[in-house]
Amino acid sequence: MMKYGFSERVKYMKSSAVRDILKIINQGNIISFAGGLPEESLFPVEAVDKAFHKAVTTNNKALQYGETEGVAELRALLAERMKQKGLNRSAENILVTSGSQQAIDLFSRVMFNKGDIILTENPTYLAAIQVFDSYETNVVAVDSDDDGMILADLEEKIVSLKPKCIYVVPTYSNPTGKVWSLERRQKLLELANKYHVVIFEDDPYGELQFDEKEAPPSIASLDDNDLVLYTSTFSKTVVPAMRIGWIVGPHQIIRIMAQAKQATDLHTNSISQHALVHLLNDFDIDQHIQTIRETYYERMLVMKKLLDSVEIDGLKYIVPKGGMFFWVKLPEAINTTDLLNEAVKEGVAFVPGAPFYVSDPEQNTLRLNFTNSEPTLIEEGMKRFVKVLEATNINV
Amino acid sequence: MMKYGFSERVKYMKSSAVRDILKIINQGNIISFAGGLPEESLFPVEAVDKAFHKAVTTNNKALQYGETEGVAELRALLAERMKQKGLNRSAENILVTSGSQQAIDLFSRVMFNKGDIILTENPTYLAAIQVFDSYETNVVAVDSDDDGMILADLEEKIVSLKPKCIYVVPTYSNPTGKVWSLERRQKLLELANKYHVVIFEDDPYGELQFDEKEAPPSIASLDDNDLVLYTSTFSKTVVPAMRIGWIVGPHQIIRIMAQAKQATDLHTNSISQHALVHLLNDFDIDQHIQTIRETYYERMLVMKKLLDSVEIDGLKYIVPKGGMFFWVKLPEAINTTDLLNEAVKEGVAFVPGAPFYVSDPEQNTLRLNFTNSEPTLIEEGMKRFVKVLEATNINV
């Protein structure tokens, strides 16, 4: 019964399938590879504590209402950090957001009309699809392989569908853990230039690479024509609870997004912003990120070893070069939603792959997170997983 | 030049006239009564510092991703505080938001379609109009007097326009400083029930009353039929930089708003939420609010004394019983936008009243904030203001 007259857009809003699964899983005594959480024991608590102490006690002005665009010192530091990564933009081109999720939402708000076409990979980041759906857009999948989108399919869809935007998570993607090759990045940009389509590059995991040499440049850093918006976050490198992300892009778009943000929440929590300023100044965040990388790499290898032990023809996965996830394909006869039910009975959980698809979901896929469990737990959980998997495979 | 194809709704987005004025004013050495800022020297820095220290160091789980609805302990404490104020709802009916501005935005997102009618007072809270405009709604003004909306006009407009919502700031309103009488609150609710219209009660200033006896009950606390949504904030009673507000309402609406929030920013900064839990448990916030009230009352009286010294027939103002603002009407010949130019030359600033109107702006109105300047500065600033005002009055 709809007692209240909700807006049309409510029909297009979906709760996150993953969040719904997590609620169930978190109730039991289950080893969970389902979430996308960073490792809590690595949180730099002492440094964060000092940074907040400084933010709260240094100047009462820091506790007052602040500017919608973000704390000036933080924007300057972000511009500096971006420059070190080859993305040369001024602080004027940066908007601080309440997590990078808000960057996706504000961008959508100022760009999309009902029915606009957005091209994405398939599968792609679930909560981006949720946002796009809520603006009543049409999200269309482009074929891709291990190196990124297939360029012929991309160009054909640009020409025939005239998309407003191409949304990509090109580096250690969620859910596939994939990395786009340099060539695909360049070619994507060439096509975007040729047809004047905006690219939205979502990069929450870019700093979590396992091998320094392998880190590809961001697509934004290759862009000379103001066609790429780039967003990232401190959720994976400091702590998620701060909810601080940022977006870098053409000033014209950033300015309008700031205007939208003003109506949305006035400005992002500025105690956290000032704390980040102190953290970036007083703490060796790059050394800290190196520790995160090493820890996650070790955990990835433990999970890989157990995955390699599975005796099932047709099981495929991509070896992650960074990020937080394994993406696993099973024989087509295995439905991973059914498999999850069995797995939970055995005390282990993952996320079925289907919800991450824009269209044509593959029911035989799943995502495993390796960052939020200690190696011994990964080993134990994966043994349970392999047991369930092999038992299921015999039965199908 | 529109290089990028923005969404239609961008046309309906306006930057805040007040924020634009503030940017200019903050550049000079001006005594400003223009903003709506709390007094910085009253910020409970020591208590906030302790609260953040506890929030960051007690449990790493508090630094992890959190629930969209808000930190459970905070929602329970809010339900308890609301109950003490006669608003008896469970934690399930509460959504923690990134400031009460976000509550207005999320509510609008799930309720309004293009062209929907919203009834408001005239003038009313500027940033609410901004949000409503961005959803392409039609905001229609209801006539009002010092006690609230005029009921005959309200009923006529409900019947003829079939509004989706009535938006009110009934207690120490921004910009008018007005308080609705108990009778008008009850009658508003009766009409809302009769015609089944949702009321959105925006109450950021309700705790800033100058006389304990005069505090009227919130409209939400009189509601037995799940028709009122009530939002408030800690921006005026703790610090604005935390950006923590909350909204209490029918579970059906709160649940859908939480779903919208999930796509918007996942969840509100949970370090600040946990800090607030500690603050509410360890610190006497009610005693602190009492200090704020006394300080603001004293400042209000200083400003009133100077306003009373003005020798201009036709100058009218409402004596604030709480909140942060004087709303002043001048003789019709005086345009307060022109007056502001003269005032700034003399080193004092206010906000012209026109931007706060939904329709038929009265150019001879202005808003004065008395909370963000010390008494001696109020005295000096008001002397400058009176000088400019009297000089202008002779010339018109």
UniProtKB/TrEMBL annotation, chains A, B:
Cofactor(s) demanded: pyridoxal 5'-phosphate
Key words, A-Z: Aminotransferase, Pyridoxal phosphate, Transferase
CDD domains tied to this protein: AAT_like
Name of this chain's protein: 2-aminoadipate transaminase
Domain Aminotransferase class I/classII large residue range list: 42-384
Signal sequence, start to end: none
Organism domain of life: Bacteria
One Pfam family in the UniProt entry: Aminotran_1_2
GO MF, one annotated term: pyridoxal phosphate binding
Annotated Gene3D superfamilies: Aspartate Aminotransferase, domain 1, Type I PLP-dependent aspartate aminotransferase-like (Major domain)
Complexes and interactors: Homodimer.
Keyword Protein biosynthesis: no
GO process annotations (BP): alpha-amino acid metabolic process
Similarity comment: Belongs to the class-I pyridoxal-phosphate-dependent aminotransferase family.
